[in-house]
Amino acid sequence: MKNRKIRIFLSPSRQKYNLGIRGSGYTNEMQEMNKLCDEIENILKKYDVILYRNSYETFIEDWSKINHEECIDLHLAIHSNGSYGNWKKGVENWIHDSYSNTYSLAKKIYDEVYSIYPANNNPITNRGIKYANGFLAETNPAYFSFGMNLEVAYHDNLEDAKWIVSNRKDIAKAICKALIDYYQLEKIK
After folding, report:
1. Which residue, 113, 138, 185, 186, has fewest beta-carbon neighbours within 10 Å?
2. Res 4: pLDDT
3. 85: how many CB neighbours lie within 10 A of its CB?
4. pLDDT in tens, 62-93
């Protein structure tokens, strides 16, 4: 029996000017990642977990303060990726460095999402775990004791953008499966 509930802070992208590629149905990163986090919340609220979430009115300093005051177990930033030339594809998950205590969970989330990604047999799309080394604040231990930044797929690649829009519920289920397994979350009765 656990002494306290697991606390997860969902941090969907606030980047409203990162637009999806035309014809994909993808609007902008902020809107699409918030929709994905809505799906994640709908699943996780059935489990014995406490959820927190960023908003457009708050800033990283606010989230970091909550992280420390509430002893957040996971700060999960959820984004879609972009590239120059619109040719990149795939899923990746960013953590602080190769020694991060977040590696196991980051790999578990990555594996679950990548397993449902349509081009998961292509080495080019197998982007894996990446190391920010302080570059990404939401993975930086100075701000968050257990943070990672999941890049679901590329919003500027037509196939990836369509996949995100068409598979939001499945992507949320994959992320939640990893979280439920890792934290051994129990369903609320």
Report:
1. 186
2. 83
3. 7
4. 999 999 999 999 999 999 999 987 889 999 99
Structure tokens at 16: 């409203």
Domain boundaries of the chain, sorted by first residue: 6-183
Phi/psi-derived region of residue 136, left when phi > 0, alpha when psi is between -120 and 50, beta in every other case: beta
> Is CATH 3.40.630.40 the classification given to domain 6-183?
yes
pLDDT bracket for residue 2 (50, 70, 90): low
| Token representation of residue 24 | 């994909």
List, in order, residues 6 or more apart from 21 with CB less than 8 Å away: 86, 155, 156, 157, 158, 161
pLDDT of 116 > 50? The answer is yes
Taken as a whole, the chain contains a residue count of 189
Give the Cα separation of 161 and 153 in Å (integer).
7
Q: How far apart are CA 13 and CA 141, in angstroms?
A: 19
Helix H or strand E segment including 166: helix 158-166
Would you call 37 helix, strand, or coil by DSSP? helix
User: 19 has which bridge partners?
Assistant: 28
Answer for the pair 164, 171: CB distance below 8 angstroms, yes or no: yes
Which helix (H) or strand (E) segment holds residue 71: the answer is none
Distance of CA 100 to the CA centre of its chain: 17
